[in-house]
Task: inverse folding
């Protein structure tokens, strides 16, 4: 069972947890991304996220389906934020429930690693003296 | 044929807008489109990489394009 | 920075998250144990947790300090429940924040794996037709 | 000397209470205590394993015990 959301509004960890909780599950692993105040020693003022929304949801659906095939997990919730985020805000939450914890950990890590590689979402870091699209240039 | 290309992230900055239109022969491929885009927008060659998506899927270089496809340029992603 | 609690009252994920969040962090990994409705195909009615409290806190402190030495992580929160828990309730929450996600994942997994090996807390599974101290016998 | 041994989990069931008292020679070791406990409570030998803790720390087999130590029997743990 897969729950995917792209949202311009603040993400809520409890919503994701409530969705993945299941009486047949013994463990849940949750990854929560947060906006850091600095990158490579330079102060970050805010982040701006942009998504190719329909394709992003399709790619997220694919990686979640892959995870359900690769590991004995029950439920996955992936919520990703778009728009302007301040330091401390949450760009992404990934929650995975499973009967046994190893599968939940492995699947959660696979999901965030793969999301960062394939899902068409872009992040701009805004500094006091400029801004940069992350990963755009070598 | 005319193709409309959607742009996101740094590609939007390079195109100077959220889409651009290119004139390209019938049955052109993804590779052909990339060549044409790079001629029009040389800054694309400075990117770490970029992909073309056709109808919400990553496209292969040899894939042919049609005027009814939804085509997008996908610069290096950085979600999460 | 380490936050350790043993509690007879229901655990709260948000409390742990709020504690580990930090503007210098880019990611948080959280493990949440939940009481499963079955073990080896047999229906579980409830679990009963018992701790040798002072020693449990001391052992938890040790493994958290080890994690802070082994990985570049910022903050750790470990809350463990004692007493009677129903199916779906939460025996344990472990939250770890870090600048980069790999360290948060590795440390969180180390903490739950090591907790289950060394921390003096015991769990009794109660079935309709009997009860068993988990792991007591070969 | 008299030693009071705290018990948890299945050890509490085996002792029939949250502690037991054993009479043991001065300077007895952890190993000696285990031998004596197993003689008094043979069910301990059926456990997957068990440890002795002295003053809130896991103890080594050769460690000597004193009457002022807080001693506990630690059957296989199963937290989490």
Result:
């Amino acid at each position: 069972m897969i729950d995917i959301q792209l949202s311009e509004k603040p993400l809520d960890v409890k919503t994701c947890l409530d969705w993945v909780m299941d009486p047949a599950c013994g463990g849940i692993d949750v990854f929560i991304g947060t906006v850091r105040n600095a990158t490579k020693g330079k102060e970050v003022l805010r982040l701006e996220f942009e998504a190719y929304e329909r394709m992003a949801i399709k790619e997220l659906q694919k990686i979640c389906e892959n995870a359900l095939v690769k590991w004995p997990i029950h439920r996955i919730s992936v919520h990703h934020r778009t728009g302007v985020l301040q330091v401390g805000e949450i760009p992404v939450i990934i929650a995975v429930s499973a009967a046994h914890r190893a599968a939940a950990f492995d699947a959660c890590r696979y999901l965030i690693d793969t999301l960062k590689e394939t899902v068409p979402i872009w992040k701009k870091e805004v500094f006091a003296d400029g801004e940069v699209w992350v990963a755009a240039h070598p | 044929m005319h193709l409309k290309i959607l742009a996101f992230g740094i590609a939007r900055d390079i195109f100077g807008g959220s889409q651009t239109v290119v004139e390209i022969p019938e049955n052109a491929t993804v590779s052909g489109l990339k060549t044409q885009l790079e001629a029009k927008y040389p800054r694309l060659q400075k990117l770490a990489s970029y992909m073309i998506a056709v109808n919400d899927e990553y496209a292969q270089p040899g894939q042919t394009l049609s005027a009814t496809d939804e085509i997008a340029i996908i610069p290096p992603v950085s979600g999460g």
